[in-house]
Design a protein that fits this description.
This protein is an alpha+beta fold. Helices cover 21% and strands 28% of the residues. The protein contains two helices and seven strands. The strands form two sheets. A four-stranded antiparallel β-sheet has the order 3-6-1-7, covered by helices on one side. Strands 2-5-4 form a three-stranded antiparallel β-sheet.
């Protein structure tokens, strides 16, 4: 699963509502087809890995897949039956913060129909609304 090798601060603040659109990573850079998010949200490392597996299984040795997001924000969780107070919980998992317009996955080397089906299988695994995009030539 994806996670940072080393972080400056082990626990980060959660922050508030994710506002605004994505400034970077809004266009297809590597492949011919992409999966773009339509809403803001947090995508866990497990969701990214699950989506990657779904796409890879569908295209079977054909094509190349790029993952354009990385889970670098740590999320904490307190143990079960722990009383209130006593500080913040331990790091449980990592998430990637995505804003509307961000291209999360890219694919190349396959036909449009195959790419569209693979991306739709991946979209089921993610917790945000997405759309299939193709490079304008």
């Amino acid at each position: 699963m994806l996670m940072p090798k080393k972080v400056k601060h082990r626990k980060v603040q959660r922050g508030g509502r994710i506002r605004g659109n994505s400034n970077r990573g809004t266009s297809i850079s590597f492949g011919s087809f992409g999966l773009k998010t339509l809403e803001a949200g947090l995508i866990s490392a497990r969701q990214i890995e699950s989506a990657r597996r779904a796409m890879t299984r569908y295209v079977q040795r054909g094509g190349k897949i790029w993952i354009r997001i990385f889970p670098d924000k740590s999320m904490t969780k307190k143990g079960s039956e722990v009383p209130m107070g006593k500080g913040k919980g331990t790091v449980d998992h990592f998430v990637a913060v995505v804003r509307p317009g961000r291209v999360m996955f890219e694919m190349d080397g396959v036909k449009r129909e195959v790419a569209k089906k693979a991306m739709s299988l991946a979209a089921y695994k993610l917790g945000v609304k997405t759309k299939f995009v193709a490079k304008e030539e």
